[in-house]
Amino acid sequence: MLRLVVAIGICATLSGCVVQPQPRYWGRPTTPYAPGYYPRPYAPVGYVPPTQASYTRPSYPQFAYPQPPSGGVPVEAISPRASFADENVDYGVAPTTALRVSDFDAPTPTRIEGARTITTAGLHQLLASGRAPLLVDVIGGEQAFSLPNAVWLRDAGVGRHIDDDVQAWFDYHLARLTAGDKSRPLVIFCASRMCWLAHNATLRAVDLGFTEVYWYRGGRDSWQAAGLPMEPVAPPPS
Fold first, then answer.
1. At what angle do helices 196-207 and 165-178 cross, to 10 degrees?
2. Which of 61, 114, 138, 174 could form a disulfide with 157 if both were Cys (CB 3.0 to 4.6 A apart)?
């Protein structure tokens, strides 16, 4: 045992006297870097960083809702054959009288039983007639602008069945807005032809006994695509 301890001590002493070589590291390359941008500490010889004077900030046009050109409404908007944002596209979806309870952002049918599907051109003509309709916006989420004079009833397109609290809520607000006149034309819309919220709300209005209900299938997307103006909209009622 004593011999083992002595041997360990001798080995430790000898290893401490050995001079260890210095570690070797990779040096910087002697060839210049390929042309291109490099951070300042690693810039190649002759590299000149861009100065503030040489940089031009790109300009981006400010977003604005489309407005009609001076002198009146766009000619395309009053053409009976005009179509905007694929508002007339037929996805082959069969008409239904049942409410859609999920996946509202999906292709819609082209008609609703008991209502009339109206295009952007048709809506423009209807608004220019002597009997102005009530525009009902049922877009979900948040928004600040809608069609001129539209009323935002955000929750009218939800619910699980036609005889629920949403229907009673919708009935109350429509009666208030139309002064109880069931013959008042109603135009119901949401974002686009891919929105079932307006489809559901149209079914609800028909069930409530309104006799002239229009489903603006193209919605806000088609209205804006036609270059027609938008206006601030009041927040929806709770």
1. 70
2. 138
> Which residue do the tokens 């609703």 mark?
112
- d(C-alpha 135, C-alpha 147), whole Å: 8
Helix (H, G, I), strand (E, B) or coil at 117: strand
Tell me which of 90 and 61 has the higher pLDDT.
90
Tell the CATH topology of 104-232.
Answer: Oxidized Rhodanese; domain 1 (3.40.250)
Whole-angstrom Cα distance, residue 220 to residue 71? Answer: 23
**Residues 114, 212: Cα–Cα separation, whole Å:** 9
Q: Report percent pLDDT > 90 for the chain.
A: 62
Residues 76-87: what's their mean pLDDT? 75
pLDDT of residue 26: 37
- What is the token pair recorded at 166? 């949403």
